[in-house]
């Protein structure tokens, strides 16, 4: 691959410091760009629920030189136990058999651990603006004038929205989220609670039709990640921006549930880290407009049902950086980014249509069929990698001289 060179470094503003933002910042800096990252939070979010890094994304982090650190942070879950309505055991098996991961290759780490490793990689080379956000973008043929919420004003050659599924960058550029959001019929609440159950390196999942509750011990900690998931055909729009309404909706949905669910609902009421959202995807006909592009969940969120959000974010960051390094013209770069990545995105988003939600059946018959499959997995050999995880071939990004 050849590089176009200019006398002045191209200035890029990235909105969002979670996963795709710092990953993109790394590759752009390596290719000679001057990079600024703006993040509305006052600091990195530590901890967080576990996320997967699989397939092509493993190669991305290997090329970044952070694979050993992420292997050290790998959550070595030893057992996933599925329970019936009364808390009786349905099946107990290795987590990789359930998730479609390749044991010994794919990684599972806390979201905050991945963010911290990415930040440490770029913090000395990239400008970070915490506790701030983009208020307005004013594009011209030559540049993008940005006004920040803090009042500061700056001019950049390019802007990239890496600000998640509910991206403000996307909304300001393309319009309301509703145009691009594909609701998948599930709502979920994630929070932490005390590990009073003695769980260690394991996951426990309780199910009744249309409802699931899970407790995840990522180590020997005194804290558990709790997860309450339920089927709801219609999008609960009223609850999406109202934490009290979210708590009420979850509590009402799980009223009368068995096992440890009442205690989980009580812990959710008191949790100061409750994260509530819907299972959904972002599907857009294009990922850029003018000098502004979108990346990761902002452009193509696949939903937690696929387990591929973080892997897509890492792969997308790599492919956008490669396109920008290879093309001086931003329009050509953005077109190449879309052309080279869209099929991979489509394959991963299609996982939900190929049984991505089978862990959360909505009928008694479907639940029994799932339980039968889980019991059969106990004696089956380890699963092979899903094609969608590794279907993208990465080009080589040649650093700027």
What characteristics describe this protein?
401 residues; alpha/beta; single chain; 25% strand; six-stranded mixed β-sheet
Give a description of the structure.
This protein has about 400 residues and is an alpha/beta fold. About 35% of the residues lie in helices and about 25% in strands. The protein has helices at about 20-30, 55-65, 65-75, 95-100, 110-120, 170-175, 245-255, 260-270, 295-300, 310-325, 330-350, 365-375, 385-390, and strands spanning about 10-15, 35-40, 50-55, 80-85, 90-95, 105-110, 125-130, 135-140, 145-150, 155, 160, 180-195, 200-210, 210-215, 225-230, 275-280, 290, 290-295. A 7-stranded mixed beta sheet has the order 5-4-13-14-15-12-16, sandwiched between helices. Strands 7-2-1-11-18-17 form a 6-stranded mixed beta sheet, with helices on both faces. Helix 1 links the parallel strand 1 and strand 2. The longest helix is centred in the C-terminal third of the chain and has 20 residues, at about 330-350. It is globular and about 65 Å long.
């Amino acid at each position: 691959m050849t590089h176009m060179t200019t006398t002045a470094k191209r200035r890029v503003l990235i909105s969002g410091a979670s996963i795709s933002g710092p990953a993109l910042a790394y590759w752009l800096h390596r290719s000679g760009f001057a990079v600024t990252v703006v993040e509305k939070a006052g600091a990195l979010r530590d901890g967080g629920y576990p996320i997967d890094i699989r397939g092509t994304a493993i190669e991305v982090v290997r090329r970044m030189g952070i694979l050993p650190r992420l292997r050290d942070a790998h959550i070595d879950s030893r057992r996933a136990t599925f329970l019936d309505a009364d808390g009786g055991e349905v099946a107990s098996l290795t987590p990789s058999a359930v998730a479609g991961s390749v044991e010994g290759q794919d990684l599972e780490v806390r979201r905050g651990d991945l963010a911290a490793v990415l930040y440490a990689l770029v913090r000395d080379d990239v400008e970070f603006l915490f506790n701030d956000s983009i208020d307005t973008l004013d594009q011209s043929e030559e540049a993008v004038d940005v006004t920040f919420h803090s009042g500061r004003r700056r001019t950049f050659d390019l802007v990239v929205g890496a600000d998640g599924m509910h991206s403000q960058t996307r909304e300001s550029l393309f319009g309301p989220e509703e145009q691009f959001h594909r609701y998948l019929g599930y709502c979920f609440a994630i929070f932490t609670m005390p590990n009073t159950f003695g769980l260690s390196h394991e996951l426990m999942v309780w199910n009744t039709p249309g409802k699931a509750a899970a407790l995840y011990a990522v180590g020997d900690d005194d804290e558990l990640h709790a997860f309450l998931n339920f089927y709801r055909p219609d999008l609960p729009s009223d609850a999406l921006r109202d934490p009290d309404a979210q708590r009420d909706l979850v509590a009402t949905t799980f009223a009368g549930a068995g096992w440890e669910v009442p205690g989980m609902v009580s812990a959710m009421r008191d949790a100061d880290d409750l994260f509530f959202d819907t299972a959904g995807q972002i599907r857009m006909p294009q990922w850029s407009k003018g000098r502004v592009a979108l990346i990761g969940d902002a452009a193509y969120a696949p939903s937690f049902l696929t387990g591929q959000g973080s892997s897509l974010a890492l792969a997308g960051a790599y492919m956008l950086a490669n396109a920008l390094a290879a093309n001086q013209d931003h329009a050509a770069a953005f077109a190449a980014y879309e052309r080279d990545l869209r099929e991979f995105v489509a394959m991963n988003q299609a996982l939900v249509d190929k049984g991505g939600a089978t862990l959360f059946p909505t009928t008694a018959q479907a639940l029994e069929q799932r339980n039968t499959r889980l019991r059969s997995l106990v004696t089956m050999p380890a699963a092979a990698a899903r094609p969608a995880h590794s279907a993208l071939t990465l080009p080589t990004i040649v650093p700027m001289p």
